[in-house]
């Protein structure tokens, strides 16, 4: 039986029994090459960048029976083509009593969007379907329910200020948040 050991000084195999005959296998030379190391590093960076970008293009907003959004600020990378918001109601009350939705609009339009949404009523998820100021919205959810919406980030203009609000009747004065484009 031939026993081989690695000589760390040169990265080659040597016979452990008998005369010092150096055996130089091809795979060791390839793995020590700059091409292999550079290609492996590029692959790792590419995969890590793709995963990071996918994770940054979505968020979950929690709402509860105490009329609040958590968090109250969402950062949206301009590098994202689309962005997904999932609204998760962590409370217990049904949507008829304590429903919440998530509505995206310019900060200057939030009050108007809230008024027209309230008038649209529950059958339209408290969002006026003809209101062009609404850039994206979820359906109304009750306790232990969730809803998601995906929208094009290209709709958002850098330099403009955006926010989100719950347009369920009476909730808009306190259930608000801001969008930060980065």
In terms of per-residue confidence, which ranges show pLDDT below 50 for 5 or more consecutive residues?
none
**What Rg, in angstroms, do the CA atoms define?**
28 Å
The residue-averaged pLDDT reads 84
The proportion of strand residues reads: 25-35%
Q: Based on Cα principal axes, name the global outline.
A: globular
Coarse structural class: alpha+beta
For the biggest β-sheet, the strand order reads 6-12-11-8-9
Describe the SSE topology.
Elements: E1 4-7, E2 12-15, E3 22-23, H1 26-32, H2 34-56, E4 58-63, E5 69-70, E6 73-76, E7 82-89, H3 95-98, E8 103-106, H4 110-120, E9 136-137, E10 146-152, E11 162-165, E12 176-181
Parallel strand pairs: 4-7, 6-12
Antiparallel strand pairs: 1-2, 2-3, 4-5, 7-10, 8-9, 8-11, 11-12
Give me a quick take on this structure.
The protein has 182 residues and is α+β, with helices and mostly antiparallel strands. It contains 4 helices and 12 strands; from the N terminus they run βββααββββαβαββββ.
What would you say this structure looks like, in words?
25% of the residues lie in helices and 29% in strands. The chain has 182 residues and is an alpha+beta fold. The chain starts with a strand and ends with a strand. The longest helix has 23 residues, at 34-56. It has a five-stranded mixed beta sheet with strand order 6-12-11-8-9. Strands 5-4-7-10 form a four-stranded mixed beta sheet. A three-stranded antiparallel beta sheet has the order 1-2-3, with no helix packed on it.
